[in-house]
Amino acid sequence: MTDSVKYLLAEDQMPKAWYNLAADLPVPLPPPLHPGTGQPLGPDDLAPIFPMAVIAQEMTTERWVDIPEPVREVYRLWRPSPLVRARRLEKALDTPARIYFKYEGVSPAGSHKPNTAVPQAFYNKQEGVKRLSTETGAGQWGSSLAFAGSLFGLEVEVFMVKISYNQKPYRRALMETYGARCIASPSPLTNAGRAVLEKSPDSNGSLGIAISEAVEVAAGCDDTKYALGSVLNHVCLHQTVIGEEAMVQMEMAGDSPDVVIACTGGGSNFAGLAFPYIRENLKGAKVRIVAVEPASCPTLTRGRYAYDFGDTGHLTPLVKMHTLGSTFMPPGSHSGGLRYHGMAPMVSHVKELGLCDAKSYAQTECFAAAVQFARAEGIVPAPESSHAVKGAIDEALACKAEGKGRTILFNLSGHGHFDMQAYTDFFSGKLRDPDFAADELEAALGALPKVG
């Protein structure tokens, strides 16, 4: 085992292919269904909103999908990303655990999201698309697609969840710097947005609403396609560069993880780190995989595994996933990227098969962990990523209590430089742990679509 802090790969060691867990699942993923017919979707059903190359990746069961050279060329701006041994955190915790984190905050947008934004922009450009519409919660995905669109000459329109739009003005400014148009959602620009505003004029919005607006725009314009930053198979696929790099870097460190941890909202950064390790577990390895989510939007820990719409306006196909119900309105929190009613179908399937565990944490305890991490390691985590930090610290403290030195690997999916108001609120005592009414959750689950 080395005594290094950073484990860095050369650019020519970047993965040349994305890994597709669908090829190795012991039970196939339940297919997405057409909301009108209830039948499995075909490529033509998705063609109005996605380019064909992305649709092919969404449906493929090939184990490896080649990364196009133009995409790898852009990846070289920040990839391979560093693996870091959190030695100072280990010392602060006085733990025998060895803690590593894969740091995705080195990307231009400050998170893991460009790993899929770049290929999605590339494939759309190849097929002659002029404009992309999308949603964003905290703004990490919107920033990333704006960045990717600027590289490939695409217009980008981002519907940003209103509470985050108001909380995070500098994320909006970053999107606009890259040339994107940023709109608070729910907005008066779409039927889906107007319907919400009519019922709730002061709505904080949600990712489900913002998705409805973005999909409506894409479906209604011939030169526009929709781009999604999480949840679907092709997004999880693109993110696996994280785990593939981490495996090589852990070998460089002369170590291997006993537990792998990542935050979960839609599931993409979790999939990116965890799926390659789940592949190895299916071959006989014994790595514990832990997904960490917010207690205010506990999809994996309190949601139901059922077919549901991916959006509030019911414009999307039905997918089988852990869901709180498409009409569920998560309470406002600073982890805007985790405020989604559903979970990636493949992540949900993995959980159902017993291939990962899930935990939920309250907002304030995650911020406390993030501050502890920042004061030891110098990196201020994004509020979303703070959930993984909290999970890693708890695991390290358990090692201390047991007197056992397990190896912990977590994904630090982004930095919090655009989220300092949240930290200011935390330090001033204004940050609260938002909760939701149990009857509202039950009502949303009771409204799930009936699928035979």
Characterise this structure.
This protein is of the alpha/beta class and 452 residues long. It has a domain of 264 residues: Rossmann fold. The protein has 19 helices and 15 strands. A seven-stranded mixed sheet has the order 1-4-5-15-10-11-14, with helices on both faces. Strands 8-7-6-9 form a four-stranded parallel sheet, sandwiched between helices. The termini are far apart. InterPro entries: Trp_synth_b-like (IPR006316), Trp_synth_b_CS (IPR006653), Trp_synth_beta (IPR006654), Trp_synth_beta/beta-like (IPR023026), TrpB-like_PALP (IPR001926), TrpB-like_PALP_sf (IPR036052).
Topology:
Blueprint: E1 6-7, E2 17-19, H1 43-46, H2 52-59, E3 64-66, H3 69-75, E4 83-85, H4 87-93, E5 98-103, H5 114-126, E6 131-136, H6 140-152, E7 155-161, H7 162-167, H8 169-177, E8 181-185, H9 191-199, H10 207-219, E9 224-226, H11 233-239, H12 241-252, E10 259-263, H13 268-282, E11 288-294, H14 299-302, E12 304-309, E13 318-323, H15 345-352, E14 357-361, H16 363-377, H17 386-402, E15 407-412, H18 420-428, H19 438-446
Helix pairs in contact: 2-11, 3-5, 4-16, 5-6, 6-8, 9-10, 11-13, 12-13, 16-17
